[in-house]
Amino acid sequence: MKILLISDSHDNIFNLEKVLRWAGSIGIQHIIHAGDICAPGVVTKTFSPLLGGQMHIVFGNVGDRELLEQYCAKTNNIKYYGDFGEVELDNKKIAFVHFKEKAEASAKTGKYDLAVFGHSHQSEVYKIGQTQLVNPGTIGGLYNRASFAVYDTKNEKVDIEFLDQLP
């Protein structure tokens, strides 16, 4: 199974639509968003209608926490986790948060295969113990080239991709 990892969208609708359409075209069923959705209306107007599966979202450090939760509750394909998300997909335990320090703390517990974070807008992939840590960068393209990641549960490989290279 391939899982799309995004973060720091900052309401860049053009980039969000492009990556979500691409994900749908290759059959991605799960998307993890590691925070920084500024306007909660993006959830119902952009995310939900374009999803071919499920999205899992945590709060970042911008936006309105309560409104984001309310908008996610209006959908049947988006789950809001607050500050820390945890999901098991294809027998892989995945933690997701906005901040690197919290992702590293999760990795140090040894109970996750993957820990996803954002905030810095810089993509990176590394390991702590047996846990892979991934910052997919900024899908919004703010301060850095718009990027995202794809995690393949079969081989546990993470690929950092750039939005401007999508067809």
- Mean pLDDT across all residues, rounded? 97
Termini Cα gap: 21 Å
CATH C-level category: Alpha Beta
CATH topology, what is it called? Purple Acid Phosphatase, chain A, domain 2
- The CATH architecture classification is 4-Layer Sandwich
Secondary-structure-based class equals: alpha/beta
Order of helices and strands: EHEHEHEEEHEEEEE
Q: What is the overall shape?
A: globular
The number of distinct β-strands equals 11
Main beta sheet, described?
6 strands, mixed
How many domains would you count in the coordinates? 1
Strand order, largest beta sheet: 4-3-2-1-10-11
So how many helices? 4
Helical fraction equals 10-25%
Compact summary:
The chain has helices at 13-25, 41-50, 65-73, 100-108, and strands spanning 2-6, 30-33, 54-57, 78-80, 84-89, 92-97, 114-116, 124-128, 131-135, 147-152, 157-162. 44% of the residues are buried. The protein is an alpha/beta fold.
Would you spell out the secondary-structure blueprint of this structure?
Elements: E1 2-6, H1 13-25, E2 30-33, H2 41-50, E3 54-57, H3 65-73, E4 78-80, E5 84-89, E6 92-97, H4 100-108, E7 114-116, E8 124-128, E9 131-135, E10 147-152, E11 157-162
Parallel strand pairs: 1-2, 2-3, 3-4, 6-7, 7-9
Antiparallel strand pairs: 1-10, 5-6, 8-9, 10-11
Helix pairs in contact: 1-2
Describe the structure.
α1 runs parallel beside α2 (41-50). The protein has one domain: Metallo-dependent phosphatases (Purple Acid Phosphatase, chain A, domain 2, 4-Layer Sandwich). The protein has helices at residues 13-25, 41-50, 65-73, 100-108, and strands at residues 2-6, 30-33, 54-57, 78-80, 84-89, 92-97, 114-116, 124-128, 131-135, 147-152, 157-162. It is of the alpha/beta class and 167 residues long. The mean pLDDT is 97.
